[in-house]
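Quick log. Single chain, no ligands specified.
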Amino acid sequence: MALSSQKTFRETFLGKWGLSILMLMVIICTFGFGFYKRWKWRHEHVFLELKAIPVKNGWGYDILQNGLPWCHQDYIPAVTGYRVFQSKEDALAAGRIVYDKAVAGQLPDITEQEMRSKGIFIPPLDSTARPPEDQMVRLKTKDTAGSK
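-> predicted structure:
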């Protein structure tokens, strides 16, 4: 009779702490699953952001992928010479064309005709317009490397 009236350690422990341990395991599994789903979603999706940037004598645009530079355009693409957008709105409109193509899974390029059809002003070619000095250094380095 003494043996049957005494509860074993296992019965006492599970009776006292079993529900608490079970609840803790459920909470850990729930948070773990949530973190896994969040990690999976972030690796399957890309966050793109379009920003207008001021440049010398005008505007350009940046497209950021998850906060990091993906496309930096400080002059008007697809036109001859170094020309910048005259307004912030024009830069954003041109960037929006590239952004929309990237989101649609297409090659993110742009043509002069696409820009003109959106009403983006493209200034006339000015032979005196030059890129900023830091870009000139890169161009000179490429030219001297190619001539050797």
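The longest helix spans residues 9-44.
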